[in-house]
Design a protein that fits this description.
Elements: H1 2-16, H2 22-37, H3 41-50, H4 53-86, H5 94-119, E1 123-128, E2 153-158, H6 165-175, E3 182-184, E4 186-187, H7 196-202, E5 207-208, H8 212-229, E6 234-238, H9 246-259, H10 273-282, E7 287-299, E8 304-305, H11 312-317, E9 324-334, H12 342-365
Parallel strand pairs: 1-9, 2-6, 2-7, 3-6, 4-5
Antiparallel strand pairs: 7-8, 7-9
Helix pairs in contact: 4-5, 4-7, 5-6, 8-10
């Protein structure tokens, strides 16, 4: 009886339930086709979430590259125009032209720093004397404010690892109010870099051919202007002269072995003549310190230190906080404490590079977990 009742109930349901018409079946079929062709927003979100992260990163990188490249390029064009126009003022007020160019450098460097630190989350730590480098509060444009401490100018020397070392140095400059006043010694070929090469040339950056006989008169002219106008400056030089690669490091080590110099493992042997001349020319000027800086990079996915490096595109387009650590060590040395004899200065430079080599060896063994210094809000 149970089975019979169940069968009877099923039969009744089949009779009572209306069967779909042919028209309704066609509509259902068309609706299913449309859903397969035009997915719903929920389906689209699901497909987006299922996309490989590499594709999303590539899209993000391309979008940031286009937007940031357009904005930075437009700013550079505007700055070049202002620089060319202000050349008319040079015979009348050379110091004012230097101050205007400092403001222009500040605008360019600050835009890049915003991309690197604020937007892309670069993780930067500092050690050494970074905290005793004084904050510059003097205005970039106009006369010195006597109620504020004077600006501390310095010669900056640093190891050279990759194409963005300048951006790491600028992270300290922005924290000390000196972003406008950095002048880098740059290889001569960089003057042909579109927009930025002419801009740096007009801003008074020293362009060098690495031939002392041809470079000396250019450097002397830069030093003469700095002494006479007493413009604030960080005069920044990478004494190794080129970026670190395994091939170049091996060549440097071979040179040291041949000439009885310390064989360095983590930095290349420095070129000394330029710094000796710089110290001699500026010893009695308003430049009173040497900042000896040492840079290191850690690639977090592998833990490798100074083996792979971010590039100029990476710091503008990629989120850096997940993959990279940046570290900057600073030794602040009074020029008055550095001997005047050129031979002794050369030995002093060698000793500084031996210390850099030892520092980086320590960081490879244990990455320095030292202080993160925030960018002042007003900057």
């Amino acid at each position: 009886m149970v089975g019979t009742g169940a069968h009877w109930g099923c039969c009744c349901l089949s009779v009572l339930t209306p069967k779909p018409s042919a028209t309704r079946l066609v509509l259902y079929s068309r609706s299913a086709q449309l859903r397969s062709i035009v997915p719903s927003p929920c389906n689209q979100l699901g497909q987006l979430a299922a996309m490989p992260s590499s594709i999303i990163k590539a899209f993000r990188r391309a979008l940031h590259g286009v937007l940031f490249g357009a904005s930075l390029g437009s700013l550079a064009v505007l700055c070049n125009i202002v620089q060319v126009v202000t050349l008319l003022l040079y015979p009348i007020n050379r110091k004012l032209v230097g101050q205007i160019n400092a403001l222009i450098c500040d605008a360019i460097w600050r835009t890049i720093n915003v991309a690197m630190e604020r937007r892309n989350g670069a993780r930067i730590t500092f050690s050494g004397d970074h905290a005793v480098v004084p904050m510059n509060k003097q205005p970039v444009l106009g006369s010195i404010n006597p109620t504020l401490p004077p600006t501390e100018s310095a010669i900056v020397i640093c190891n050279h690892l990759c194409a963005i070392d300048w951006a790491v140095i600028n992270t300290l400059a922005i924290r000390r109010g000196m972003l406008a006043h950095g002048k880098y010694f740059i290889k001569s070929s960089m003057k042909y870099l579109p927009l930025f090469g002419p801009g740096m040339l007009l801003a008074g950056f020293p362009f060098l051919s690495r031939n002392w006989a041809s470079d000396q008169h250019k450097i002397d002219a830069i030093f003469k202007t700095l002494r006479e106008d007493r413009l604030p400056c960080w005069l920044i030089s990478f004494l190794e002269g080129t970026r670190l690669t395994p091939k170049k490091l091996a060549e440097s080590q071979a040179f040291c072995q041949k000439n009885g110099r310390p064989v360095l493992q983590n930095v290349m042997y420095p070129r000394k003549k330029g710094l000796v001349a710089t110290l001699s020319a500026l010893r009695d000027s308003h430049v009173h310190y040497v900042y000896d800086m040492t840079i290191a990079y850690r690639y977090r996915p592998t833990g490798a230190v100074n083996e792979v490096f971010p590039n100029v595109a990476t710091i503008h387009t990629d989120y850096l906080g997940d993959d990279w650590d940046f570290h900057l060590h600073v030794d602040r040395i009074p020029i008055a404490d550095i001997p005047e004899d050129p031979a002794v200065v050369e030995q002093w430079i060698e000793d500084r590079w031996v210390k850099k080599d030892q520092l980086i060896a320590q960081w490879k063994a244990a990455w320095p977990g030292t202080s993160k210094v925030p960018i002042p809000a007003k900057l």
